[in-house]
Amino acid sequence: MGCIGSGLVVNDMGGVMMARPDQHRAEASDERPDPRVSLANERTLLAWTRTALALIAGGVAVVPLLGSDGPGARFLLGLPLIALGAVIGLVAHRDWRHREVAIVAGEHLPPSMLPWLLAVSIGVVAAAALLLASGMVS
Question: For the whole model, what pTM was predicted?
Answer without folding.
Answer: 0.69
